[in-house]
Amino acid sequence: MATLRDIRRRISGVKSTQKITKAMKMVAAAKLRRAQEAIVQARPYARKMAEMLHHLSTKVDVSRYPLIAERGVQSVAIVVVTADRGMCGAFNANVIRAANHHINNNYKQLSAAGKVKLICVGKKGYEYFNKRKYEIALKHVGIFNSLAFADAKAIAREIIEGHSKNEFDRVEVVYNEFKNAVQQRVAIEQFLPVARPQGESASASMPVVRPSTGFDYIYEPSSDEIISALVPRHLNFQMWRVLLESNAAEQGARMLAMENASTNAKEIISALTLSYNKARQASITKELLEIVSGAEALQNG
Q1: Which helix (H) or strand (E) holds 104?
Q2: pLDDT at res. 202
Q3: Residue 88 among the catalytic residues
């Protein structure tokens, strides 16, 4: 049975842990507010750019644009976006599980032939897939500490170069999409070639844009020149949106995880305090019995 000193030490240790989790919750909440503002501001621009690109693609021969034209899929690159740190619940595990499931279900034969490459953004995803001997083409670790648009441009540039060199024919992104402060959703989107979606979109933040039949645009200088300039900008900003989505989702997941940890610590402290009081009461009762027994022995003697 634990002594009073052991129970006091455990209570002190849990209280220290609770202070840390509360502090981490406050930090995550502050970061979440800024990250949420950034993604809310980025979504309309990304959506409008996708709408314009989709409209343009209906006016030109897309086979002349390597970043838009579909080609036979002989190799695939999967961009897995995770966090650099843990302590954010199932945030990282959900993305990793979804990436594994997606590869095994859709690219099992290509994976067995070594034609599936991973581009890991975030330390947790890189550590997981590197230990399991997946072929990692590129990695970007530590960018979420001070996330900048230059990071998204660098990632998009490397992906475009690999696609242009025929290192991979299709690129897909697996990441956590931010829905609100306590909810995230794993999303899988095609990055290259630039998707020309039909029907309903899999992403709530980037709904499908259908070409309008009621009006048309007049483009200057020409549709071809605009689409050539727009596609790289579109890819840069879509990657930036993905990073912002993941960053906001990570802060929300961490805030929720730390809140749950603080609540659990409070419950443990209550249980330990009850055990401490019971043990203390038993110790006092034992001492009283010893005193009474000693007094009766002296009186009888």
Answers
A1: helix 91-106
A2: 45
A3: yes
Report residue 288 as tokens: 């009283």
**pLDDT per residue over 143-152, tens digit each?**
998 999 999 9
Which helix (H) or strand (E) segment is 212 a member of?
Answer: none
Catalytic pick among 11, 88, 187, 256: 88
Can you give the pLDDT at residue 190?
92
Query: What are the structural domains, with CATH classification, of the chain?
Result: 4-21+258-300 (1.10.287.80), 32-254 (3.40.1380.10)
The pTM assigned to this predicted structure is 0.85
- Measured distance CA(119)–CA(81) in Å, rounded: 8
Residue 262 in contact with residue 22, Cβ under 8 Å?
A: yes
By CB neighbour count within 10 A (0-12 exposed, 13-18 middle, 19+ buried), where does 297 fall? exposed
CB atoms inside a 10 Å sphere around CB 225:
11
Give the position of tokens 């996330």. 147
Peptide bond into 211 cis (omega under 30): no
Residues forming beta bridges with residue 117, ordered by sequence position? 77
